[in-house]
Amino acid sequence: MSAQQATSPRARGGFFAHPQDVHCVIFQVALVAGFALTIAMWNMWDQYPRLAEYGHAGRNAFAVAAAMLLGWSSGINVGVNFHNHSHRKVFSSAWLNRWFGRFWTVSGGWPGYYWEHSHVTVHHAHLLEDVDWTLPKRKPNGEWESIYKYALMHWPFRYVAHLIKDSSSGQYGPKFGRKMAIEFAWFVVIWMIPPVALGFDPLAIALVWVLPQWLANVAVMAPGMYAQHAGCSVKTPSKPYGHSNTFVNTFFNSTMFNIGYHIEHHDHPNVHWSELPRFHEKMKAEYIREKAHILPIGYYRAGQLLCRGEWVASQRELFFAQHPDYVFVEASTQKSDATPTTSPQSERGARVRA
Amino acid sequence: MALPYDGKIVMMGDPRVESGASDSVAPAQASNPSLPGSTDVTFSAIAIRSLFPLVALVLILGTFAWGPWVTLGATYLWWRIVGRIG
Q1: Nearest to A275 among B12, B20, B25 (CB)
Q2: Which of A141, A252, A260, B64 has its CA 20 to 30 A from that of B50?
């Protein structure tokens, strides 16, 4: 046995590739439990007096609430949780990685293999290039299209069109199209489980199963994707960290698998998600020196600022403000007290943090 | 066409990470329990990492206690709170 084999998770008998990956699985299990519970409550609404007293209007209100909660979690589950798996598989077993992956993304309206292709082969390999069709389109003046238009168009419309084109183009090898077809077939089989459990009731399927998928993509993943690279440009030697925005909000990163550390993630996609905060600390001085865009908020607040920024310029300015702790001050302009928090840029950062 | 990233594992402290060459390293650093935080699988850690689906479960189950309209209102409130602090 080689040294490499001896230290691999499989050779050591580990179930997870990294101990922290247990959280990825717990998240998915809790989400599936939420869907199962919601389906059961919808089906048995009239049998429980405590629920039946609210009638079917109450049942529909419950389904909308559950759709918001589960769609929200599904967006995180695909865009962050499975995202980590697409870069670094969470299990030491290849079989488990493949099959858990097939179930992982269905509630988010995605076949896992399709999302992996979109994210890794297209987005990471061609970040911000014209062929990176996962990102918003550019207007003739170079600016991105509206966040609303991007959110409403990207899933499923643009994704489906591009995935069909990629699978039939042959540019990803002779087996790619076949693999796409097989994965789509599995997706359909798994996707049909809730409709069967709901007795093919159209209203139930729309509220309990389809609405969460729409919310996951339109209200969660799209604003997140937009915020990650808004105002950014292709990586160059003169702007090595201008390709992404990093969000250092503690609540956001603690509950979102550290996805906020996005400059770090694109430059080093194989660094484990649980280690990104420490990695960020190592890179902090470099980011300040190179004027990387660091925000004190998370994607949720950022999404709000970008949405309102379509009409209110000051909201957009708040998004592009720099974190007060990351403002670069030229050495020649520093006096005895070099604290950089008095610049107009840092004041805007302080406002957005507040 | 090969994928640009091969899924091999890199951990903090690996000199190849520090040098920016992390995309082509061998999986020798997989799962190092000696790393700080590596065994942080406590109940509080689970509650934080899976906060959103757990809140969803609580609010969905809570419908038995407080009814669907309160669940809908609480969901909206939770959405607004996270929009402010996250």
Answers
A1: B12
A2: B64
